[in-house]
Design a protein that fits this description.
Shape: globular
Largest sheet: 2 strands, antiparallel
CATH class: Mainly Alpha
CATH superfamily: MFS general substrate transporter like domains
CATH topology: Growth Hormone, Chain: A
Strand content: under 5%
Structural class: mainly alpha
Low-confidence stretches: 4-8
Number of strands: 2
Number of domains: 1
Radius of gyration: 21 Å
Number of helices: 18
CATH architecture: Up-down Bundle
Length: 420
């Protein structure tokens, strides 16, 4: 290898870690609208005189817009680059919080917190994931896991401050202050981002990864994509149910305000959950880079089924709620590193942002099932147990599908592509 090439590779290696750091900051800045939402459900219910299912429609709008618009957002980022679009996304997310502080109706809440935060977080999320699979062809699981961890970790820094400010100053001032701060921090980080250029010499992807890029239209005709879509929908449903309904079911179980280690169980559990939800993404991404995507999926998803089962069995114990909810998120959050890296390994990096935009729609489907429909099932049955039973079954099924259906399908597809 020539000295010039070594220097070029060294420069690209340094640059890509800087890009990962910037992506991590931007992801952290947009995580609170989703992960701290559960703290706002009761204040919005009281302020608007609405039922829990009606309030939870806001969360569904946020996730649906975050995910269902992502194919178009991914195309725009593939076409025009990440810098300006991601900055705008961060500002829109902050604006959603600021404007929702002043709403006086459900429609107003839907059009501010739901609409603006949904569009903004979607642009940022899909753009940064698409950026990382390009900068790290050799470490896609680790890189996507690291920035996706920012989306989980960000709320660690905000959960207790938001909870404290809400108690002292009310939810309106809290939304305005944090909306301004988080929007500006994310936008500043985004303005330094860029796609890898021709002068950036990056390591090659693994042998099993697709070398050529499959365009979205062709990918959408492939059964592997739809299997991944169904699997991601099932896993998203359970995680989003826990995220959006956590305060509600912990109150029903009588554990929300029980003191654990000197702190109320609800905000303590939410903080622990954000930590494990962040840690699992780079951890299982790193594991999947070494033992394979499907093997890792089977381990993580079956662990998730077991964790949710234990959470239900010990639901009236506040300490168990804190510990086991953390384990639940450790078994769930890795979907945001495993699915994009698996998709890009299968269909190539050329159209990675747009392609993942289509798969990310599964998160929106999961938000409908895990948000208002789960709340409605709780109201109809008078219990959260049927909701948890469905989630446990879907988690276990997804783990089995990864090992016994997805794995042979992907091996056959890779062999066919290599022989063509």
């Amino acid at each position: 290898m020539t000295t010039a090439l070594m220097e070029t590779r060294g420069s690209a290696a340094s640059t890509r870690w800087v890009q990962l750091g910037l992506g991590l900051i931007a992801m952290m800045s947009i995580s609170s609208p989703q992960y701290v939402w559960t703290l706002f459900t009761k204040p919005f219910q009281d302020a608007l005189g609405a039922t829990l299912p009606a309030i939870q429609v806001t969360f569904t709008i946020l996730i649906v817009l975050q995910t269902w618009l992502s194919p178009a957002q991914g195309y725009l980022i593939d076409r025009f680059g990440p810098r300006l679009l991601i900055a705008v996304g961060c500002l829109l997310s902050g604006l959603g919080w600021i404007t929702s502080a002043h709403v006086s109706s459900l429609i107003g809440l839907y059009l501010t917190y739901g609409l603006l935060c949904g569009i903004g977080t979607g642009i940022v999320y899909i753009g940064i994931i698409g950026l990382m699979v390009r900068w790290f062809p050799d470490r896609r699981g680790l890189a996507t896991g690291a920035v996706a961890a920012g989306y989980g970790f960000g709320a660690i820094l905000t959960t207790f401050p938001i909870d404290t400010m809400m108690r002292r100053s009310g939810h309106q001032q809290t939304l305005v202050v944090f909306g301004i701060v988080l929007g500006l921090v994310g936008a500043i980080a985004a303005l330094a981002m860029r796609m890898p250029g021709k002068s950036d010499v990056l390591p090659p992807p693994p042998a099993m990864a697709a070398q050529a890029g499959t365009p979205p239209a062709k990918m959408l005709r492939n059964r592997i994509f739809w299997l991944l879509f169904i699997m991601m929908t099932m896993m998203s449903t359970g995680g989003l149910m826990v995220i959006s309904q956590f305060a509600a079911f912990s109150r029903d179980f009588g554990t929300a305000n029980v003191v654990v280690f000197g702190l109320a169980a609800l905000p303590l559990a939410l903080t622990v959950d954000r930590l494990t939800n962040g840690l699992t993404r780079p951890f299982f991404g790193w594991v999947s880079d070494r033992i394979g995507r499907e093997n890792t999926m089977a381990i993580a998803f079956l662990m998730e089924a077991a964790a949710v089962t234990l959470l239900v069995l010990f639901r009236h114990n506040a300490l168990a709620l804190v510990v086991l909810s953390g384990l639940v998120f450790f078994g769930w959050g890795e979907i945001f590193s495993l699915f994009p890296s698996t998709l890009t390994d299968t269909f190539g990096a050329q159209h990675a942002t747009t392609n993942y935009g289509f798969l990310y729609v599964a998160q929106g489907v999961g938000s409908i099932l895990g948000g208002p429909l789960a709340a409605l099932l709780r109201e109809q049955t008078g219990s959260w147990l049927p909701v948890f039973a469905i989630i446990i079954a879907m988690d276990a099924l997804t783990g089995i599908l990864a090992l016994f259906v997805l794995k042979p399908m992907r091996h056959a597809y890779a062999g066919k592509a290599a022989g063509s």
